[in-house]
Amino acid sequence: MKQLRKRLTPIAKSLLLSGFVAMPFLSLAEITNEQDIEKIEVTGSRIKRADMESASPVSVITSTDISMSGISSVENLLQEMSFSAGVAGNASNAYWTSGGYGTAQVNLRGLGIKRTLVLFNGRRVVAGGTGANSSVDLNMIPTSMIERVEVLKDGASAVYGADAVAGVVNIITKKEFEGAEFDIKAGITDENDGESQDLSLTLGGNFDRGNAVLSLNYSNTEAVRQSDRIDCAKFGTEDGEFQCFGSGTTEGGRALLADGSQVQFNQNPDTNTYGNAYGPYSNAQHGFEWIPYLNAVSPMERINISSFVNYEVSDSINLFTEAMYTKRKGEQIVTPRNGFGGIQVDADFMYNPTGQDLEFQRRRNTELGAPYFFQETDTVRIVLGLNGELDNGWNWEVAYNYGRNTGTDGWTFDIDPDKAQQTLDDSTCTYDNTNGIPCGDWFGTNELSQDVIDYVKYRREGTGGNEMRSWTANLSGELFELPAGTLAFATGIEQRWEDGWRNPDSTVLANGNEDPISGSFDVSEAYIEISAPIFESLTADAAIRYSDYSFTDAETTHKIGLTWRVNEQFMVRGVQSSAFRAPVITELFGGTNGENLRTIDPCENATGAIAANCQSDGVPANFVQDGTTILTSVGGNPELGAETADTVTVGVVWEASIVDGLSATVDYFDIEIDDSITSVNGSDMLRLCYEDPNGNSQFCDSFTRHPVTKQVDQLNQRPVNAAVEKVSGIDVNVEYKFDLYGFDAKTIVDITRLLDHESTPFAGQPTIDKVGYITEDQGSYTEWRGNFTFALASDDWHVSYSLRYIGSADDVNGGDFDPLGKSVDAITYSDVAASYRFNDSLQLTVGVDNLFDEDAPYLTSWNDANTDVMTYDLLGRRGFARLNYKF
Question: Domain 10-166+176-228+297-334+374-413+462-592+635-679+718-886 sits in which CATH superfamily?
Fold first, then answer.
């Protein structure tokens, strides 16, 4: 088989080795004057090219960037980049449900994790999590095995299929290695917590007809409690002072009496017997401080084993394999369980001290302690394939890709609400426990007997998984000569099967709190892509793909791109493409699942039309929301169809001749999604309802209020094919390389200006614009985000200083009632690192992230730890050290 070596000039090498750059156009002459050039495949096209010429903007994060940071996870690398926005799961988020508990994803352009396609060496990856999940769990991929990450910031459904609406993240691993390498990295925060360790061993070697690589990795991250970063849950007052508040699910319990009053039962077990004391409920007096029971950063332990083998079967056929196994364990401390609510208790129940019939509303059962929420996942991925080169120079490949993810999650203990209700009904329970169902004294702190605790307590555990199988066949090469050059092509077919399932805990299932999920689909696809030089300086790219899903209509997507080299300094590029996303298994087949989601009731402190409509609905003018979350029913919708998108990217590339080493790219992107699959969040549904109850009647039908307290007791939030979403913005990249006192110096600036991020829930409804806002459960959509890096390098030294800029933003729910949290100033995080190579075998890297210990800002719409954990740094200043030894 013909063995070809990459021969790149310093310009091209710097692009691959620099931190996060947009690839500029490079001509053949700029790469090399030699004839034996290897044609490589750049993310965004299946056509192998002899240069980096691309109509679509592609950014690169290299292994050097990773080693010079204290980050041990792929998603944190990506989420810190300027092209990320919105909400995605990460290690700083104690509760991430929609993507799978404990999982981590990336959200390009803020369009959602399901619209970013994640590839592993150019191929799809099975979804990860603990059952019927919707996206790849980036936790499964250790950073030590990554050669580079290519990020295509453009729609690519015509090339890669569904899901590539916002773009593609292609994680490329080290597949060829000779020798042995041991790498150890450890980090800790200024607060002496959040310890992390990352150990990896890579072994590789060449044999007569190929190469084999084996990688072993162990990672461990310790927990950080919210109480170690913040004093309490806060909200601002009109006089500019913070006020702490507690959860309305209180110790000792509270109830609604028959006369309409709300009472709190005794919280001091030393003052009376059988909880006889009770009085009017007051959150300020009785609220439960839950912050000590939540993590700011969740612990995770991961073991990974990966292998890559290439074997030359003959001069024209090569066998390759990729195998990976990852086990991930995580746990988060959970607040003491509530377990029941809305239970009716008779006035003559022995332990009822009120003498009235009552409705038990909430109770924080601290007598049972605080449980831990745990997850354990196992992910297997195997790729087996053949590739080669035909006599005419065409390249071909046939591959089978198998992935399976299984997981278990649950709580170390929970409370069975059905059994709890039995202990409050003396027609069922007995006060002396003669029938095995003890009556319970839930009326006050520490009044529960051990018999009652043992009766209602159980270990909660659910299981699930995801499976993906696919066959792919691809062919690429050159067809014939045109007057301006060679017409190149790529074509291929794919058959893919995906399954997802979720089996809830039997007690949860029996009580109707969660439904099982089981679904599958298959898809057949075919595509063709061509690249045609029209003139010597103008090249056209085009692609078309046909996708036939088993549950929805077939879709055809296209891509048309142009690159025009105006002169030696300027290139103009542009891509117009269509994309689509088919609904995932959870969106189609997911049953009802109750989640307590952060939701703001607009009737509290309402003014104008909202206040009038709230009062017309029976909500009193002095209404105060009880807590910050509302029980929300989420699930699937079998009537969903595919969403479609049109994307446009236009940009210029400038390689300055007047300043040696200076280059820049500017790209405008515009994405418009029709029939978008979305779920309107609870706060928006409530607000839209009370802004216009008639025009937005469908939102008013999505929730219910308690007949007496008028608290929202349940929301219904399910995915629908909405009207339209639109995102547009500008990416700017500037790179300058120069010599500084004998050092190779480099500066890189990446800036994203978000122009539009609009969504219209339904035709004729108001458009919601997120630009410049931070939301309560969808993350930040600040107008400006940027990254700056300055690096110096010599033969032995490498020093870097990096800035991460997050622009100012307003809180979407901010107002006069909370002036301290209604807006956030711009924040800049600084990171420094230095690396020294002692000899050919040993290298030491040390660094500090968040050098100036910037605190996360307080927000009205905080979703954890009084801030937006998807956007801001909770850990504070932290240091790391990394030792790399080759032998």
Answer: TonB-dependent receptor, beta-barrel domain (2.40.170.20)
